[in-house]
Write a structure and sequence with these properties.
The protein is mainly beta. It has a domain of 175 residues: Single-stranded right-handed beta-helix, Pectin lyase-like (Pectate Lyase C-like, 3 Solenoid), CATH 2.160.20. It is 9% helix and 51% strand. The chain is built from three helices and 30 strands. The relative contact order is 0.07. The structure holds 2-acetamido-2-deoxy-beta-D-glucopyranose (NAG). The site of 2-acetamido-2-deoxy-beta-D-glucopyranose (NAG) has 6 residues, from strand 27. The site of 2-acetamido-2-deoxy-beta-D-glucopyranose has 6 residues, from strand 27.
């Protein structure tokens, strides 16, 4: 058989996909969006077919598992869409093998709720996975420089015991993946990409959620690779390749004077390439409450502007917030085995509040040098109390 060029290139891929498909145990009840009238042409709105397939999967009369399938051969245009639970099956699969795209122009969202694009709400035991692509078509949104870009690509709202894996997500108008009000959610092996300098395009944002794990993923977007918001605990982040973007950030916290509760955050075994920050905690002075029991360990920085930073004076415009006597208390933060290069002079910057100082800081085995060989780097630890061993440039000095 003679294959033409394109097919020949595709052939190994098709083999792999075939293998994957045949080794995955298919859910008991499958609902294929093509059976519900999806066109897969990428030009007409396929939302209704998705809603109907979801309705049947979610209501399936099975004790076990059911799944929606988005087939490999197809590009599916979706308008803002909400998949509601609770569902009958204990486990719901949402297998994305093809491509899902958003309307390309912001004006085609007129009259629709553009705060979120694809959302799952109140679904327990949800597994979103597959070799597919989700394209938020953010380009035209980013260009509207003076307008707020509200919509987030993939939203998990009150989804307990869920997973997101293997999916490739690109070009969100705003945050790519939002996990909110959820308990027990694992993200593994995803790839998230948007161009550098796109506004507010966080990779993954976690808010009001507990026991969330994010592992083995590659995230490069214009904003934070991962950001952790108010009311979060037991968050485990490991094996992330972050960059370009703003790094992995706890915060910003307490923006509107909230009582912040952020604890047991573990960020490890990750690398940062050409990001503005590495290990970051940022809080607004008007916030209250706590950030505590945070561990940053085994991190490598390559040409990062602020490899280690706490900013308790975070403000929309630097220097424009007047000094307050309030703040979010930051305590018990461990920095351990952190290495690499800083593109700015201050490689370690703990800028803690005069009124609510940082305490229980522990630094061990840190070596940061300038991206430009031979240039010295310095550190600045203000209102931060703790101990350090083997830290270069030395910061806590006691
Ligand atoms: C700490 O924050 C204050 C207030 O934003 C700022 O003026 C100062 O330059 C910061 N210090 C460092 C070392 O970044």
């Amino acid at each position: 058989m003679k294959l033409n060029g394109d097919l020949q290139d595709m052939f190994p891929l098709m083999l792999i996909l075939g293998l994957v498909a045949s080794t995955i145990a298919w859910p008991i009840d499958n609902f294929d969006v093509f059976d519900y009238g999806a066109t897969g042409f990428g030009e007409v709105d396929d939302s209704q077919a998705f809603v109907n397939a979801w309705r049947d999967a979610c209501n399936a009369e099975t004790e076990g598992e059911a799944g929606v399938i988005v087939p490999e051969v197809g590009t599916f245009l979706l308008n803002p869409i909400m998949f509601y639970g609770p569902c009958n099956p204990q486990i719901i699969h949402f297998m994305i093998l093809g491509t899902i795209i958003a309307p390309s122009s912001p004006t085609s969202w007129d009259g629709l709720d553009s705060s979120q694009w694809i959302a799952f709400k109140d679904v327990t035991g949800l597994n979103v996975y597959g070799s597919g692509l989700i394209n938020g078509q953010g380009m035209l949104w980013w260009d509207q420089s003076c307008r707020y870009h509200p919509n987030k690509v993939l939203n998990f709202l009150s989804c307990n015991e869920g997973t997101l894996s293997n999916i490739h997500i690109v070009n969100s108008p705003q945050t790519h993946v939002l996990i909110i009000d959820s308990k027990g959610f694992n993200v593994d092996n995803v790839m998230i990409q948007s161009p550098q300098n796109t506004p507010n395009t966080d990779g993954i944002h976690i808010h009001s959620s507990h026991f969330v794990k994010i592992t083995n993923s590659i995230i490069g977007s214009g904003d934070d690779c991962i950001s952790i918001g108010d009311f979060t605990s037991n968050i485990d982040i490991a094996n992330i390749k972050c960059g370009p973007g703003h790094g992995i950030s706890i915060g910003s916290l307490g923006k509107d004077g909230e009582m912040v509760q952020v604890e047991n955050i573990h960020i490890s075994d990750s690398s940062f390439k050409q990001t503005t920050n590495g290990a970051r905690i940022k809080t607004w002075q008007v916030g209250q409450g706590n950030v505590r029991h945070v561990i940053f360990e085994n991190l490598v920085f390559d040409d990062v502007e602020n490899p280690i930073i706490i900013d308790q004076y975070y403000c929309a415009v630097r220097g424009m917030c007047k000094e307050e006597k309030t703040g979010v208390k930051i305590s018990d933060v461990v920095y351990k085995n952190l290495y690499g290069t800083s593109s700015s002079k201050i490689a370690i910057n703990l800028n803690c509040s005069r009124y609510v100082p940082c305490s229980g800081i522990s630094m061990k085995n840190i070596n940061l040098v300038s991206t430009q060989p031979g240039n010295p780097v310095t550190s600045s630890c203000t209102n931060a109390v703790g101990t350090e061993v083997g830290v270069n440039p030395a910061c806590l000095r006691n």
